[in-house]
Specification:
elongated; 193 residues; mainly alpha; 9 helices
């Protein structure tokens, strides 16, 4: 993304472009979206668009970075409280925030890099928490990086389903579901060590 200006007009333009792009992603595949489609939907001119972005891939990268930044911030806050998987906080954050951009990226193949980045960020948070839990015990029978991949994948798959289904259950219930489905095996594994 081009150098961001801090003034309100620039921020408004970025919000308009992101919202327009998210709406378009819900309506059609990423490959079929033209910069002109974004301009028409956002109600801005070509010069304004190119003052902020290089192309539609730049808009996609900007949206991905914003969502990833939110996730990594939530993960960092949760790991500071020594949680293995910050599932409740992440469910709550998605539930309370306008999730149009997240949903649009989730439904589009263009969002695959976001999912990979989220998995990596979540694994990086889970693995040290697991090592801390196992610090005074012998090595677990399943390597902790494998457990970390499993937990992050299970969480993200459940989160993806929840958002796609228009969040039919409150965050607290989703947290409970995740706890019941994914964590008993992890706790049993840690008791074996």
């Amino acid at each position: 993304m081009k150098q961001q200006k801090a003034d309100r007009r620039s921020q408004r333009t970025c919000r308009l472009v992101s919202s327009a792009f998210a709406e378009l992603l819900v309506e059609k595949p990423y490959q079929e979206i033209l910069v002109q489609d974004i301009l028409d939907r956002a109600g801005i001119g070509r010069t304004t668009f190119y003052a902020h972005y290089f192309d539609k891939a730049d808009v996609l990268d900007s949206m991905t970075e914003q969502i990833l930044s939110m996730f990594t911030h939530q993960i960092a806050d949760s790991t500071a409280r020594q949680q293995v998987v910050p599932s409740l906080e992440l469910f709550e954050h998605i539930y309370q925030s306008p999730h149009q951009h997240f949903r649009a990226l989730m439904r589009s193949r263009a969002g695959e890099p976001l999912w990979e980045a989220l998995q990596t960020a979540l694994c990086r948070a889970i693995e040290p928490a697991l090592y801390t839990l196992c610090a005074e015990k012998r090595s677990p029978p399943i390597p902790l990086p494998v457990v970390s991949q499993y937990l992050s994948g299970a969480f993200l798959t459940l989160l993806k389903w929840w958002v796609a289904a228009d969040m039919p259950y409150p965050p607290e219930q989703m947290e409970n579901i995740f706890q019941q489905l994914a964590l008993p095996g992890m706790w049993a594994l840690l008791k074996e060590t």
